[in-house]
Amino acid sequence: MIKILKTRKLLLISAAAMAFFAGTEVLSAQNARIKIDIDRTIGKVDKNIYGSFVEHLGRCVYGGIYDPGSPLSDKDGFRNDVKQAVKDLNVSLVRYPGGNFVSNYHWLDGVGPKDKRPTRLELAWGRLESNQVGTDEFMKYTKEIGSEPYFSVNMGTGTIEEAQRWVEYCNVDSGPYYAELRKKYGHPKPYDIKYWSLGNEMDGFWQMGHLNAEDYSKKAREAAKLMKLTSPDIKLVAAGSSNYRPNADPNAWNATILHELRDVVDYIALHIYVGNPEDNYYDFMSTPLVCEQRTKIVKGMIAREMEKADRGDRGPIHIAWDEYNVWYRARAGASMHGTRALEEHYNLEDALVIAQFLNVFVRNADVVKMANLAQLVNVIAPIYTSEKGMFKQTIYYPFQLFSNNVKGTSLDTYVDCGTYSTKEFPIGLGESKTIQKDVPYLDVSTTYDNGEVTICVVNRNKDKAIPTDLISEEGKFDGDFEVYEINGPNVKSENDFGKTTVQTEKKPDIKVRNAAKFTYSFAPHSFTMIKGHIKK
Ligand code: AHR
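That is the input. Now the predicted structure with alpha-L-arabinofuranose docked in place:
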């Protein structure tokens, strides 16, 4: 009896001490641990994991980045307020022009005098495409926002010759017809577009010109040959599987195309969308782990193919998660088609999922070398516009924190904390179900860059703060550590026009002087970034 009382007393004392850090109820007496070892490196974080995506779909282009009649737009028709928000988001590269759209897009429709460009019936999203924005306008836009372009060619209704001619238009200085056409249209210098993907989601039955893996591989290989003969330094991305519906075989698709294209491509593209259709917070919080699991499976497949590949000095194939996001509300009926298609309104729990996706990319920095948040404006996007203005959705803030801070080398970090398990649940609409065991309440990535460590932590726990010992295994923490937190009154908190409920908040610095350990309590349902120095 005496022993029990003593233990309880001890527990109460440490709980009180921890509540001091957290300002929130704390029930556990044992601190979680994050052990950081700057010698245990995974790989370099590629800046291209901070990519985004602009598709001719709904109000992403027209009414999003481009609104020529608006008093908010510049002389070229680009919305100034949106441009500024995109610049602040620090997007490294932008995928264009689709998505499903690209599989019925003919790039020649979108160049030359605007009044001569044809209006086409756009079959992927059931809308009319005016072609008022095309290659040259988009290239001007990427220059202004300081991002690199990443183009996707039409492997559906398009031909390999059409793909070659687009590369010629964009990348050849002068001489052949399409290079001269670009000059005639007022663009003397080639654009030198480095990244090109060989189609979009070609394994999906919904794709215009959908192919089986063998036929896709043949077409993609020949397109790659012509494109590379035209512009030898381009980097090519193969369309990996996006079809994880119960009757599909995504691993078979990926295995075939990796085998067939292993000498030719530089990336395999993967797509993932997750959601919370059953309104189960804890299930939803574990969905980015599915992305991690798929990453590891494809990493193994790549390793197997690299053994026999003939790639010269081009290094191995990497993974491009060139579409990822939360997308489940605007996914049926009218919300899938027409002008207001795919307009999701995001909340705090969605922002926590985006932070976790970014943690997954950082934790797998050796193989994930590109990622594109789908999409940039209005369509499942961090930026939302009306004719009168715009607001930043909740998911804007974790992306912005990562893209401006997380760089250098990803570290293999040990995390010891409480866990939970999920039952079987769908990760998104139409997708196969999953079970997640031992999901840690803390989702962590760490990077080290020139003496500075950046620690990114999602506390998945909805109700409890998690007091955590941050431990340096090699060298001492030293200096004032900056702390940023993204949180809100509850997990369903949203932003709107004139109302910013969820955003980044700078917390007081943590002062650490030459210590191997400090303690911080991560608030319930939060994303926290801590930045400071480790002295060797
Ligand atoms: O980003 C929305 C759509 O999702 C894209 O057009 C397609 O590639 C994916 O299915």
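The chain has eleven helices and 27 strands.
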